[in-house]
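Notes from hallway chat w/ T.B., transcribed later so I don't forget. T.B. wanted the structure written out for a chain they're using in a teaching module, and asked if we could keep both sequence and structure tokens in one place. Agreed to drop them here.
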Amino acid sequence: MITVSKAKVDKIIEHKDDLREYFLIPDKYRSFRAGMFLQLSLDLVTASDCWPESRTFSIASAHDKSNPCFRLIIRRVGKYTSRIFNELKVGSICTVKYPFGDLMLPGDDTSEIICIAGGSGIAPFLSFLDECARNNTLNNMYVFYSAKTESEMLYKKLLSELLGNSYYPFVTREKVEWAKNRRISIDDVIKLTQDSKLNTQHYYICGSPSFIDYFKKGLRNSGKANVFTDEWE
């Protein structure tokens, strides 16, 4: 069931000048699955009104009744996201419409979850991380994460602590010791699954359109099934 709700900005983390994380507390907090997304509008409307101009963002947190909050990672890339940066302050009210999407976990503990993220595309996989940590299924989760610079790689310490050797960081425009200094390749992902001890793999891709297209085609051309993408923009 789609819900329209007012939401208050509870906290803002500025990761970079053009990259922020917003914590929103909605008036109506309904159940949703990790990996889903919402629409955010700066206009204040109700469910009976025509839906105004908005933008779509992955929810970077799993559903949690004890902490009714949406985490959104927003990059300033155009006029509307610039308005969000300028107008949404702590205490501001906006409108959200949710949940949408089918980028969801398989719902069992016998499949490998292989996430491939570029830049702020890590957002839905942070919600996966929340969910898997809660369900004690982190052993089945692998994250390939690419960013241009170290400052653009979000929650690298948390990812490393929770996933250990199942976390594969790549930094493409800086040289750092803790990551591979190149792009993720299809071969990197395929090599992992060749040694799999589980029968089923689910591949999840989120990033720029070209990033998604490269891995989607590469995995399918390699005969991989269960390839899911976040392509709502």
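Follow-up for T.B.: The chain has a mean pLDDT of 93. Might be a good example for the class.
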